[in-house]
Amino acid sequence: MTDTSTPATLPAITKVLCTCYAVIAIAALIATWSQNLAYADRGAEFITAFWQDTKANAAARSITVDIALFLLAAVIFMVFEARKHGIRFVWVYIVASFFIAVSVTFPLFLLARELRIHRTEAPRIGAADTVGLIVVATATAAFTIWVDVM
């Protein structure tokens, strides 16, 4: 009989993958916020100035919309995978994506997912998740239109 109360040692490949995700998250935090701090002298206008600059030219608009639409796909993936594998606090990862950087929070989510991957069940998406996904999808669509059209 196997004792299921003792945690199994993670396979080497899982350790490597988790390390990669952690390194990506740290690098992303440094890379994004070293640029974001350029707006620190703007005070209360930090957010307004930052988002206006995402529309500075065609390249900025392209990459901004690309990241926004990736974020939408990542949010859908995170919610379903979190429910499937029992990963807690999925909406913390999602909300933090907007305030920190999706390039930071998505690898952290993938790290958490990798650590829980052996607990697989069919995902159960509740009403709160459905509403949350609709809100994020609507906001992403509006943001995309704002960047591309307005």
Note the main attributes of this structure.
disordered N terminus, 0% strand, globular, 150 residues, mainly alpha
Give the gist of this structure:
By secondary structure, the protein is an all-alpha fold. The protein contains 6 helices and no strands.
Q: Which SSEs are present, and which pair or pack?
A:
Blueprint: H1 12-36, H2 46-53, H3 58-85, H4 90-99, H5 102-116, H6 127-148
Helix pairs in contact: 1-5, 3-4, 3-5, 3-6, 4-5
Name the overall outline.
Answer: globular
Order of helices and strands: HHHHHH
Our count of helices gives: 6
Distance between the termini: 65 Å
Radius of gyration over C-alpha positions, nearest whole angstrom: 18 Å
What kind of sheet is the major sheet?
none
Overall number of structural domains: 1
Task: Report the portion of residues in β strands.
Answer: under 5%
Number of strands: 0
The percentage helix is over 70%
**Oligomeric status of the shown chains?**
single chain
Helix/strand-derived category reads: mainly alpha
Q: pLDDT average, as an integer? A: 88
* Poorly predicted ranges: 1-6
Description of the molecule:
The protein is built from six helices and no strands. It is mainly α. It has one domain (12-37, 50-148). Helix 1 packs antiparallel against helix 5, helix 3 runs parallel beside helix 5 (102-116) and helix 3 packs antiparallel against helix 6 (127-148). The model is unreliable at 1-6 (pLDDT under 50).
